[in-house]
Amino acid sequence: MLMPSIFGESLMDDFFDFPFGSYNNGMGELMKTDVKDTDQGYELKMNLPGAKKEDVKAQLKDGYLTIQVSSNRNNDEKDSDGRYIRRERYSGSCSRSFYVGDQVTEEDIKAKFEDGTLTMTIPKKEQQPQVEDKKYISIEG
């Protein structure tokens, strides 16, 4: 059914609806994230299908944890004469950011990548209450 993209579908979805798979190479499954609140902190599980450990980078800056995945794939198949049967290339990157607080440091976060799933544990840190300095204005007279 053709519907405007404001309803979550593209006008071209039905046109490119191939019976042998989606034309977007499964990008809809990329970086789906579950965040679980535990007693010790937060557990973050992110789906990264087809990614390798060396493709994944995590950075903590100004209280934001940013996870970036970049990939370059090249699938070349040739027949016995060396003519191309199929040539496909994929190159792209995507990232997601989560606010974890200014109190969390890189050493506090534990990360593990296994079977296309990135699992990170982030501890809960209490934000230190700021002491308010009272500043008075001098009054002449």
TrEMBL record:
Residues covered by the SHSP domain: 22-140
Top-level taxon: Bacteria
Signal peptide from the UniProt entry: none
SUPFAM superfamilies referenced in this protein's UniProt entry, alphabetically: HSP20-like chaperones (SSF49764)
PANTHER family: HEAT-SHOCK PROTEIN 20 FAMILY MEMBER
Record family assignment: Belongs to the small heat shock protein (HSP20) family.
Protein name: Hsp20/alpha crystallin family protein
